[in-house]
Design a protein that fits this description.
Length: 200
């Protein structure tokens, strides 16, 4: 359904002056935007149902931008991606109480280990979505900086025993888990992954 809508929208743009050679690119871009918006709407709906909309908002802020920067495992369809994303967000916010009660050293240690994974491997490129070396280098720098800032924020919130620490940590941790899964995926571009292991 999302693909059909995206193709029709791209066709409409071409009929109204867009470059016909860019129709597939436009369709893919529209598809990604619609899928992302759907995920965010469903996540917020889940947050409202759990009576924790603020915690869900924090999860989304910690999860989505970093996920887009570091890459990792991907579902085979937009509906699969939606199901996994909403499931991860719902479980993460639902577990915010127990996670928030975890020892400070555990939160700090796991957050630093997650950052180490991001630093060494991001971005994890899928074979179906190759990127240029220049864009790869830029993405790697941006991922390292953003992940470092987020890690520092999570540790600071945890030290202050803020209730916002748990959903932020879970957004960070689930992104790392998907990154690790991406390293083991058959769809990962191994040549790009090897480049990212060089400490520069």
């Amino acid at each position: 359904m999302i693909k059909r809508f995206s193709k029709k929208a791209a066709g409409f743009l071409v009929k109204n002056g867009a470059d016909p050679e860019m129709e597939e690119v436009c369709a893919y871009g529209i598809e990604c935007v619609v899928s992302t918006v759907l995920i965010l709407v469903l996540l917020m709906a889940a947050g409202i149902l759990l009576n924790k909309p603020i915690l869900m908002t924090v999860f989304m802020i910690a999860w989505l931008p970093l996920r887009m920067l570091v890459g990792g495992a991907h579902a085979n369809s937009h509906w699969g991606c939606t199901l996994v994303s909403v499931g991860l967000g719902t479980v993460s916010v639902w577990l915010s109480g127990p996670i928030g009660a975890a020892p400070l050293w555990a939160i700090v240690t796991v957050s630093l280990l997650c950052y180490m994974l991001f630093f060494l491997t991001a971005p994890i490129v899928h074979r179906n979505h190759p990127i240029s070396k220049r864009r790869y280098r830029r993405s790697r720098i941006a991922a390292r900086i953003f992940a470092a800032a987020e890690c520092a924020a999570i540790i600071a919130l945890a030290c202050l025993r803020s209730p916002l620490a748990a959903p932020a940590f879970m957004g960070y941790f689930t992104t790392a888990a998907l990154s690790a899964a991406g390293l083991l995926s058959a769809g990962t571009d191994r040549s790009s992954t090897r480049i990212s292991f060089k400490l520069e």
